[in-house]
Amino acid sequence: METVEIEMNDSVAKKWRNSPLAIRKSLEKKFEEQIEMVDRQIHFQKLETILEEIGKQAQQNGLTEEILKDLLKDE
Prior knowledge:
Blueprint: H1 10-18, H2 21-60, H3 65-74
């Protein structure tokens, strides 16, 4: 485990410090899950961007849907 710091307003910080350990641990776990979900979304968006760019380049190089279907059919 690694400790990270998060800035928040004074009121929330005080409530955090005064919360029972079990609640803080539960919230830490939920925060970890949210960070993982956001990270997956970012990677997925990057993949979509790459695939869109590949598609554009293929079209610019003359690949049509019909040609692609013929190529895939031959395999």
